[in-house]
Amino acid sequence: MSEKKEPSVWQGFKAFLMRGNVIDLAVAVVIGAAFTNIVNSVVKGVINPLVGAIGTQSLDSYSSCLKAPCRGSGDDAEGVKILWGSVLGATLTFVITAAVVYFLMVLPMSKYLARMEARRKAREGTKEILEVTELEVLKEIRDALLAQRGSGPAEPPAGPGRF
Question: How do residues 111-151 score in pLDDT, each as one tens digit?
């Protein structure tokens, strides 16, 4: 009996690295890290000043006291403080990130892919029309040849592939 040799750990690791989706994921992580800087700049440079026009530029300072006395910060704080401004800031950052990704990346790419698909379908439709037209022309030629022979148009000759 011949035993099947199982792939070594090194071969499995090599196959894992050569898989296409691993490379795609690595590229996505690198682009995502670079994109984070853009989003943070938009939040610091545009959103925070807009929020600052209404209240304060830093949402982190907004809080509510659940159990008095709420004094101090850090380890020596007294009472129970709910920092809802931090949650609101993180939520705004998430919504802005999602909006920027959708409107600047997903939506244009979807429209581009839809256009490419429409062009592909149009090309295929044209190809089918050409094939049908060529077939019709060949039938007309066949009918004309049959008419010249005197057997009349309309009925194709018997047998496959005969004109």
Answer: 999 999 998 888 877 776 766 777 788 888 899 998 888 75
Q: 65 - beta bridge partners?
A: 81
Phi, psi of 13 (to 5 degrees): -65, -40
* Of residues 132 and 64, more confidently modeled: 64
91-107: burial string, b at 16+ Cβ within 10 Å, e else: eebeebbeeeeeeeeee
The residue ranges of DSSP E strands in the chain, in sequence order, are 64-71, 78-82
* Of residues 100, 86, 82, 81, the one with CA closest to residue 56: 86
Rounded Cα–Cα distance for residues 151 and 143 (Å):
9
**Mean pLDDT to the nearest integer, 26-30:** 85
Encoding tokens for residue 90? 């993180």
Tokens of 135: 């077939």
Calpha distance 132→163 (Å, rounded): 18
The predicted model scores a pTM of 0.47
Q: How far apart are CA 71 and CA 85, in angstroms?
A: 17
